[in-house]
Amino acid sequence: MKVALTFDAEHQDRPAGSPGNLPRILDILGETPATFFIQGRWASAYQDYAHEIAGRGFTIGSHGYYHVPTHMLIPAAFHSDLSTAADAIYETTGIYPKLFRPPYGLHTEVGDHILAARGYTRVQWDVNSEDYRLAPDAVVAKVLGELIENPGVGRMPMDEDQEVTQTILMHTWPDATVAALPEILSRLSEAELVKL
User: Fold this and answer.
1) How far apart are CA 141 and CA 80, in angstroms?
2) Among 2, 24, 31, 162, which residue's CB has the most CB atoms within a 10 Å radius?
3) What is the CATH code of the structural domain delimited by 2-11+19-193?
4) Do the Cβ atoms of 196 and 35 come closer than 8 Å?
5) Closest by Cα among 88, 65, 87, 89 to 77
6) Domain ranges for the chain
7) By three-state DSSP, how is residue 75 classified?
8) What share of the chain is helix, strand, coil (3-state, %, to 5)?
9) pLDDT tens string for the chain (196 positions)?
């Protein structure tokens, strides 16, 4: 089984985790492949963190600028959000993202056409860790349980050689992510962890 670990780096809309959780996550990951979907507004506010993610060689995608569900944006506003996010991410990481995770996972056919025309690949998730609301042991159980049970959800086509079969959604700010991640990585040692 191939597994992609992904993390949304965003301004949280729930109680904040402890200061410094992102550096802890990066240290736990070490050389483990992972993809970070960065909100443009977050990149501007946490430039050092965004720069460090890129400096460690992790794949970087866009999570929009304001974390507005794409179905709430007219096409011109969606174009603007994509451009503003891409510019903010580039200014802090030196990378123009080509992967896009829609806020809340919500997308539309029109939005998908816009993404495709701009060269983006939309990336959803197969397993939502719910690290923003669950205790660490429940996060571990949910991730490992759903990896086995979930056959996968629809996503825009990746490159032909992309063999990811399961994508895990986590976040960079919850305390539960920091606590659960070592056990998840330990239990995934049999899987081939890959970058998107």
Assistant:
1) 39
2) 24
3) 3.20.20.370
4) yes
5) 65
6) 2-11+19-193
7) helix
8) 45, 15, 40
9) 789 999 999 876 666 677 789 999 999 999 999 999 999 999 999 999 999 999 999 999 999 998 888 888 899 999 999 999 999 999 999 999 999 999 998 999 999 999 999 999 999 998 999 999 999 999 999 999 988 765 555 444 455 555 667 899 999 999 999 999 999 999 887 678 888 8
> For residue 103, what are its two tokens?
């806020």
Beta bridge partners of 171: 8
Tell me the pTM. 0.91
Question: Any long-range contacts for 95-100 (C-beta under 8 Å, 24+ apart)?
Answer: 95/54, 95/60, 97/38, 97/60, 97/61, 97/62, 98/61, 99/35, 99/37, 99/59, 99/60, 99/61, 99/62, 99/123, 99/196, 100/37, 100/61, 100/62, 100/63, 100/64
The H or E element containing residue 140 is helix 136-149
Is residue 87 within 8 Å of residue 129, measured between CB atoms? Answer: no
